[in-house]
Fold each of these.
Amino acid sequence: MTSASTVQRRLLHEGWSLRAVAGPVPAEVGDAAVPAVVPGVVHLDLMREGLIPDPYLDDNEALLAWIGLTDWTYETEFEVSADAVGGRRHELVFDGLDTVATVTLNGSEIARVQNQHRTHRIDVTGVLRAGTNHLVVAFRSPVKYADAQSLVYGPRPRPYPTPYEAIRKSACSFGWDWGIVTATSGIWRPVRLESWASARLGDVRVVATPAGDDGRVEVTACVSRADETPLRLVVDVAGASTAVGIPAGDTDATAVVELDHVERWWPAGHGAQPLYDVHVALQAGADTIDKTTRRVGFRTLCWEMTPDAAGTPFQLIVNGRPIFVKGVNWIPDDAFPSRVDRERYARRLGQARAAHVNLVRVWGGGVYESDDFYDVCDELGLLTWQDFLFACAAYPEEEPLRSEIAAEARQNVDRIAHHASLALLCGNNENIWGHEEWGWDELLDGRTWGEHYYRELLPAIVAERAPHVPYIPGSPFSPDEARHPNDEAHGSVHLWEQWNQRDWPTYREHTPRFVAEFGWQGPPAWSTLTRAVSDDPLTPESPGMIVHQKALDGNTKMSRGLVAHYRVPVEMGRWHWAMQLNQANAVTAALDWFRAHAPHTSGAIVWQLNDCWPVTSWAAIDGDGHEKPLFFALQNAFAPRVVVIEPDGDGLAAVLGNDTDEPWEGEVIVTRRDFDGGLLAQVRAAASLPPRTSQTLPIAATVATAGDAAAELLVVEALDTRGVWFFAEPRDSSLAAPRARVAVQPAGDGFDVTVTAEGLLRDATLLVDPLAPTARVDRGLVTLLPGEAAVFRVSGVDTLDADAAASVLRSGNELM
């Protein structure tokens, strides 16, 4: 039920069209009106109408570069009744305009905007009219605008050609070392008309705080007024309610609700995720004239950074419990983010949860994700580390950029700070490190580079708007500003030398306190690759493959990183598998090492979870949503209980990790075997791990020393959990060609595939995507001794037989 004073909100998503108005427009597009879907961007409309090819395929990216060099105009008409116009205030609200635009209504200019990351609220009370209203949003070329602004601000160091630091737009829309150049324009988030007579809710900030078994919810609301009507702010949570008056003339109010008993919210793997709806109503007399809802969870959270004997930790603590962070970095899940809806967030983040991830870092070169992203993270127990949107560049501190950054920061902190999942706000990605180490000072020649934002502006905004949310100035960072920002003994580090210059076993030379980035490249799933690249013949360096490899010397680095472990295959299918397997092995080695050094090392965030298009990259899930072998590396290394074998001085040690609430006790059996499965040496020990602890067991030299390194392995078994160690690299070993039996039987909504090893089978994996676009398998990278069997559950296929399953079975053996 509504009254005349109730706020009315009307989406304006119908009847839009767009046209090119200036730029290098091909004749087939011209200046004709094209039907436009809002929310959306120009590329998607042109593709929908058949005017351009899919930019994700082959070299279409280069063919479509003209789109980012063109000015585009969107327009629509909408009707408003005479009764709806009079006596009310009217505002147009754009939740996202990408990026530099002039907005006109009925021929009157009502706004000029220049920030993709802001909501723009425009008072149109004197411009809206009864009858037909004509709305136009005219976008400037983002590439030309960024270029022009770079001349205004002066040159700044950055890794890519387009001066993305000069425009408040997703940096990776201009391309990245995993990303396509799109340089989008469009109304990329919802637009609506809001009409109200007396007052409406503005910013609503909600903080939920536990106190023992009880809880406290504090709601601070800002009210926009059209008159001096006395108002009330009413807050309801879990059956408890409070109301406060807002006298005439006041525009702010705070209401507190005390709850007698609340359930704690926990990160994934540590407990449940109970959530509570906070209903906020603005009342005038007996009428509710506006309302909103926020969903909260009750937990305490901090990052421990008190110096200790080893340096400075960066230890996450939730509800008083130290949490080992099992993290992944997140980039926009589509180069056209308007295509990412709640269902897609739930699917992708659900995959992260299935890999035992408990934290997702939203990287600073993308976008502030939609409310759906943070809602799903709340539900799944996935903590979120949110970068402010600065990445790998020196940023001007001059106007108008400074004010735009302040406004976007306030809006987005207000929008997301109530989420139980929000664990950290971070000033930037690699900019402090870049200024310290990458020769920026000389290039800047005295110009500003963004330090004001990271050290002053952003922490002040967080302190004002969300003091309950921890803030750090950048990633990597040292809590002691006098130290190098990438000092592994202090705070968080990024480890990229392994990928760029060294081999992955050298991860074991580092014992960082916390790792916020590291990773290894591999190609996308075979079906993704062959859908996007139509090269004939398809080779690692064929033209389309190079288009879909954005990293500098990426293929060379992949080959250099493989050759110490396996020879680089000639045949394309085997090359593809070898690079995927090496990616998984590299990250496994790092994660096992970092976890073996917990709690000194308090967590690791892998670069990266996802892709935004079909590309060779560091992702565990490719641009079509297929899980690469790296996904199973995460799943295995992040499992609640693990057994890993690591170098320990001149010998080896077994490290047992118990990241559960239950003790882990029992016998540990350590054996050295030959590749035929024969027992060469054995030792038994007892292990007793309290909850959330690890234990290191040195392995006796009689077992840990190989007689024939090329033909032996070490196996540690503890309570149905296993770790293996090979004494020699595969290429230097006597690993034989794969021999296995495959059997299939229906099981539930899928099929159980039983793989029985007839010889030692290393890293057995089913690459199921060629079976069907929807195919999934529940595990991978399983090493089997002769005679052992493993069951893989395959879902998303209608039929499956042993021959088909055998055709997608891969192992390290086949690369010998």
Note: Residues 494 and 517 are 5 Å apart (CA to CA).
Amino acid sequence: MRGDDVGSTELSLISLYEISKILSSSLDIEKTFHDVLNLLSSYMQMRRGVVALAEGNGDVRLAAASHLSRDALKRGACRFPLQILERVVSTAMPVVMGNAREDANFADYLADHEEDDVVSVIAVPIKGAERTYGVLSIEREWDGGVQFKFESDVRFLTMVANLIAQTVRLHQSVASDRERLIQERARLQKALEKEADDRALSAITDIVGESPAMQRVFDEVRQVAPLKSTVLLRGESGTGKELVARAVHSLSNRKDKPFIKVNCAALPETLLESELFGHERGAFTGATQERKGRFEMASGGTLFLDEIGEISPSFQAKLLRILQEGEFERVGGNKTIKVDVRLISATNKNLEEAVSKGDFRADLYYRINVVPVFLPPLRERDGDIPRLVQYFLGKFNNENGRDMHISADALHIFCRCQFPGNVRELENCVNRVATMARGETISAVDMPCQRDQCLSAVLWRLDAQAKPVGGLGNAALDPRTAAREAVNRTHGHDHDEDVYARRARERELAEAHDHDHDFDDQDIFDGGDGEPLLGSGGLPQRDRLVTAMERSGWVQAKAARILGLTPRQVGYALKKYNIEIKRL
């Protein structure tokens, strides 16, 4: 081997080594191609060079060109003929042009050269095991047409192209994996968001109800949940206020924080203060250690105060401060603690009436009654009873390992009941009937009301001794009137032989007949046993009548129910006392 051949071989090895270092130094493939072309210009006396990559649609794109920036390349500053590049890619064979000026395709590319310059162009494919990735091409001065020189250049450039092919394959593999990971991440993110949405929406879907009244509640819950506004849930006992409170929490941005609930009616005032605010060690007898209150436990989340209308006036002032300032002290402590709590309250009481009587602080009322949500009683939820019956029956079957069904006639009886105890009473009724049914199917004969054994009906048919239970009674009604109205609406069965309903109708007819004649004031405002109605506290009879009319919005029929009279009696009394009826 001649000495110059040895020197050329050593130079080639050094070049390949340096090129391999460049290709492995960065994931910016276009930058590495540009650096490779610069190195080739130093080792091979190359004037210019290009690296082109084949696109998936068959086109060829210039990825790098020596002496040109990326922006210049994008603007089309390199005019290397794409036809040559496409020929190399399609044939996967090198192209050698000893004098590129003889090819018209290179006229624009070599336009800036001297006319007497003879330029050679060598283009080799960048091939992988299965495909051609692109083209590596260099331009150099023609070397007098020595053939072996071109052959050695082609061999050297082919080795460089093989290194480039490995880099392109690695880059495409990394890009493919990155794209796959991005898509997988997006899919997982979407799945997590959907799961979170489903989990949040399940808080509403768990509340069985497709009636227009419940759909209005759901719309209000979705609207108020994302905000921080204080919510007051209003409605009769047993309408599902706690479920709605959980739905508000689950649909809010606090859903991952605690949801703490407290029944204010279940604890005396002293224990309620310790329960909500916590206490320090030694604050009172039995306080052997420090204890956090529910407000601290709910910090960042939601606190649900059920039966808030039952708290005492003295405790209302303590509660007002934390709602206004967001801070409090534990019982027996002097350190001020700040918390961030969203408050949801619930009550079945008429808070407006309690405020007017002085039983509930007006400032606390305004503080908790920011966004009121009214939950309809079951009797106003048309079409929900069949779904609720099936839901509670399925729940009974799961808990007891049964496979109970309900017949159409039994379901029809459920639908005709009014259920003054609302959803809670309906659930108890379903459990009672399912427990006592003889077979696997609940039929009409299994219904207690068919045998005059409905416990709820007995409760609400109590006459003078009946009192509203758990806030179910109308707070504006006299207890006797509330019980009498409950009798009339407890069950919608047309049982003419129902002794209680018959007695109620007879009593009303008798009262109407008696009061068709003259009567005195004592007849109007006494309840038969001399007890004044409306909780008058000794008010004059005219004032009691005006109070009842104002409370009923000047509707005589409603005022009659409040006073326990007939509309005819109320009309007579208005004329007697010369009370002008207001038109609202």
Note: The chain has four domains: 3-177, 212-376, 378-512, 515-584.
Amino acid sequence: MTLQARKPVESGGTGGHWLAVRPRLILASAFMLFLELALIRWTGSNIVHLSYFTNFVLLGSFLGIGLGFLRVGRTTAQPYYSPVVLFGLVMVVLAFPVTVDRDTDGVLYWTSLSTVGPPAWISLPIVFCAAALVLMGPAELVGRCFPELPRLEAYRYDLIGSLTGIAVFTGLSFLSAPPVFWGILAAAAYAVLLVPRPRAAYIGLVAVPSLAVVGLLLAETLTAGALWSPYYKVTHRQFEQLGVPVTDISVNGIPHQQAVPAHARLQWEAQYGLPYERAAARPDDVLIIGAGSGTDVSIALSKGARHVDAVEIDPKLRELGGSTHPDKPYDDPRVTTHVTDGRAFLEQTDRSYDLILFALPDSLTLVSGASSLRLESYLFTEEAMRAARERLKPGGAFSMYNYYRESWLVDRLATTAQRAFGHAPCVDVVSTTGQQAVITAGATPEAQRCGAPWAGAAAGTPPPADDDRPFLYLKDRTIPSLYLVTLGLILAVSLLAVRVVAGPYRRMRPYADLFLLGVAFLLLETKSVTGFALLFGTTWVVNAIVFAGVLVAVLAAVEVTRRFRTPPLPVMYGVLFAGLLLAWLVPNAWLLSLPVPVRAVAAVIVAFLPIFAANVVFAKRFADTADATTSFGANLLGAMVGGCLEYLALVIGYQGLLVVAGVLYLGAFLLLPRRALA
């Protein structure tokens, strides 16, 4: 570690701020991460495109954070632009919300019936650029603290602040707090962090926009009548249809579910009764995954079920089912509710069932931090159906139904069931319009009663999805052109923005290895998020724990580097490559076979060993850089590029991301300056 890395750079102290540098750095870092999470969550609830582009705002945030660090030293002006742009973004999103139709190709599937609002080519660039500008402000405030502290101490407080931001946002999610609380916290952070000089500019550019944001979000909270679950903005309306009470439930502006009495649902749509007709066994014990508003539970009870395990991932949908469903199925003593991920429940339960039902488990959103993983993606893999088969009693049956929209999708799922159960399932296409279908497979051929034999999959049907590539709706092994064009534009805009905001690229040239470290680390993080989602569920709690765990591993690497003499960089790179090899060799199937406590320990070791080693490498290299803010900014811009490369998983699978990360880490090692090698 150089003398410059060990001693604070004397660059003006606190810069005239009333708050000391360490608490200011923690607060600014916490605000930066909290604001990023809030923008991802809130914009996606109003612009439906972002329900399937959750990392779109993440990429804009990484760009803005990187630019904020690169701006340090180029200007002394306060980043008053950040609250102004945030106000503009909130106003535009509320004035022009977006819903889309169901005809999108590739991995994007929608269920709303009409297009309302600006097209994607207008709304997505606005959100991306606005997110970058909003996050650039807090990042600039964080970056200005770095020269006032030793490198690794500054990085340490930055990580502590980031963990605090995650904790605050997770707490608000647990409390189902509406967005007005996010706005209040953002306004308070701006008020504390931005220096109120000159006073007129502070009032006009900070106080007024911040209070306006709070006012707009308060108006949304009071008028929308929405429930804010950890996944969606949930709205509902009650009415009568043919004399029957009905509750329509929408999430993020998309029609999603209906709470309808069992007798009416069976009369209106035959698919709901077919699983009980196709299963040979009496449905005494039933497992329903995707219980939602309770209609499927009510039907199971009407069919004579003696016990129903109702699994629903979203607590607010379960809450609405309990309060609005006319049959009150969740009040029935025969029903046990489980608010958790369906695949995780299948892997962890020790109960057996006469009927396992996947009841339209269509999440309409992605796992935050993973580019293409939906909440229900791991339910539709061959491994998931094998897990369902193992939970059946002798003579039991598995069934699933939905509006599959494409005939090849029905054939793909039927083929998956055939492979998992070892024989052809019953396939009932109830309606060719929208491919409304029911697929039922008995534990044995005798456990199912088909109306007619399945003719088999049509030519060109894609193979079953698996746990490595759980992309049910992606027909071809490719990246859809929509993504390629969008990501290309993002990178082009980012290159231009870096040149305009941060100056010549040669400033970052000495830190090319740190740039590659950022690219590779984002891929490692994605692999960790998706891996833990498979092993423990795609719930928001698991997601928050994994992100916090990544930051804890990074913080541990920093503390070890600060306090102890660590091996030289070549040795640490060797440990990193060994960790990547271990993660490559350990199969998910083996981890899933372990008891949950043992699985947790093994998963942490496998996932976090390379993350820890990678961050010891980064900490040692970062401590020895000549320019803290430029080198850190280069690393953050690398993370943005890594967010774009996440989409390679659509082609090579999530396990393949480890190979890409390994190649990038090898490139970073080859770009190490000679003095760092020494």
Note: Residues 427 and 439 are 5 Å apart (CA to CA).
